[in-house]
Amino acid sequence: MNKIPLHELQNILKTNQGIFIQGIGFDKRCLTILQNITISQFSTVIGIQNLHSKSKKLEHESKFLELAGKKALIVGENSRNVIDIVDNLSDQFSQIDLSDKEIFFDITSLSHEILVVVVGLLNELDLLKNTNFLYTQANQYGEWLSKGVNEIRSILGFSGLMYPSKKLHLIILLGFELERAESVIKSFEPARLTLGIGKKDQSVSNEIFNINNKTKNKIEDLIFSSGLDIENIDNMEFSCLDPYLTENGLLNYINRLDNRDEYNIVIVPLNNKISTLGVALACLKNQDLQISYAEAEEYNYENYAVSNDLISFFKLI
């Protein structure tokens, strides 16, 4: 993985008619990368529209079409659910010559759910080995990111193997969203719970690490005060900067668990997109694991995050 200052990105991001995939969302960081690269070096620029932000930030879609010009394709514009988005994207891939083409995928503004599903599709089409992932880091986040939870569901293609005879072990990779984490725990009522927190030296900043740590402490207090019957509560650390470290750390943690065969394991990634990518990679290797997504009722559309003009750039091998 490389960390690249935004002003140096074009010198590094060079390709001969590759494919660019852009997540289109409400986040102000949405088009930071696309605005700082040369569009002419790509044969096709695919924009994936988030379901929850179509009516909130239409200017991002308009700006995307302006930047990408005749090379633009929009996926998900009329989609009602994630299945529609995946089907639409798969159809677009089938119409593009992808042989020996590099794919550059800006994951900054996609929902965690759509990111995981697209990773699954790229894996199914044997395209992950050609894919470069880009992510615009945040300098700071708003006072709140989301409110309420509409639905908690397993992610398409990552439903794992769930046995009725087994107890549930819930693993949450915590971020800032206390209400979302609390809703997930109360919904699943797990027998065993692991609260994951970004490792201090693998966090974006000490300030963000401290906020994440406070979230963990508040969740622990809520659990103890709620009377939930959880047999075992554990902690683990993960990387917010490197998906490979997240993947390996998560798999190693699960492999070391006592009596792990007694549990169905569900993972809920609530941290950044880099760690979520790591979760997806781990679950591609261990398909017994389920990834679940907590869909928020409302997002902080106006003040979600501010870019620090540093780009994370990594390729899966």
Task: State mean pLDDT (0 to 100 scale).
Answer: 90
The fraction of residues in strands falls at 25-35%
Question: Helix count?
Answer: 8
Would you list the SSEs in sequence order as H and E? Answer: EHEEHEHEHEEEHEHEHEHEE
Distance between the termini: 11 Å
Could you give the count of β-strands? 13
Largest sheet strand order? 1-13-6-5-2-3-4
Largest sheet: 7 strands, mixed
Low-pLDDT segments: none
Shape: globular
Quickly give the structural class: alpha/beta
Spatial extent as radius of gyration? 19 Å
Helix content: 25-40%
Structural description of this entry:
It is built from 8 helices and 13 strands. It has helices at 9-12, 58-68, 82-94, 112-124, 178-188, 206-226, 243-255, 273-285, and strands spanning 2-5, 18-24, 42-49, 72-75, 103-106, 131-141, 146-154, 167-173, 192-198, 232-238, 263-269, 290-299, 305-315. A 7-stranded mixed sheet has the order 1-13-6-5-2-3-4. The chain has a 6-stranded mixed sheet with strand order 7-12-11-8-9-10, sandwiched between helices. Helix 3 (82-94) runs parallel beside helix 4, helix 4 crosses helix 8 and helix 7 (243-255) crosses helix 8.
In summary, what is this structure?
It contains 8 helices and 13 strands. By secondary structure, it is an alpha/beta fold.
Structure characteristics:
31% helix; six-stranded mixed beta sheet; alpha/beta; globular; seven-stranded mixed beta sheet
